[in-house]
Amino acid sequence: MGRKLVRDHVPGLEEKDLAIAGTIEMRRLFRAKLLEEYEEWLQAVDEGNDSGMVEELADLYELVFGMTAYCGQSMQEVTTHALAKMESHGGFYDRIVWTKAADKLGSKVLSPLTLDAVAAEAIRAHYKHAASGGSFLDPGLTVTQRLAALMEEVGEVGRELTYDNTQDNNKLVKELIHVANVALTWVEFLEGGGRPELFVYQGGGS
Ligand SMILES: [Mg+2]
Is the pTM of this model over 0.70? Predict the structure, then answer.
């Protein structure tokens, strides 16, 4: 269970289970939905499912309409740009690959291994603290609790660098990941994420 973007008139969804997203939340919702539809398209391609593939492309197509409206632009504008670029640069039909492309930072600025380590720490910490109501995945955690936890973890980093310093990089990395866990789970919560459903099973938290 969680928040995900759906079409405006999906039959069978209960009114009480629906909410209206804010402007900032829409950004992450669009991103998640794009990735979801892309994965569905890829699966249809892998299965050789031609009608399914067209269906997923239609979903992606509709997302382009939605994102255009989100920016207050018209599809006519998008089409004009698309045609002009097609004329000057061509499309994506000939499988041309440029082999000297610079690595763009973008989402790759942090390695997936680092991000995975933070996610793994979030899960580990959740199972350790959920029962006592202190999981960072709990949307009910107060700002004061989050700040206190963050300061404590920052303190642990400081301790690794000062009198208890064992010159152990692994320990320092571990403590920095703890800091990242508290910070990133806080960001998730502020951005409309958080995983309240985890607490249905844990019986802890808010
Ligand atoms: Mg789809």
Answer: no
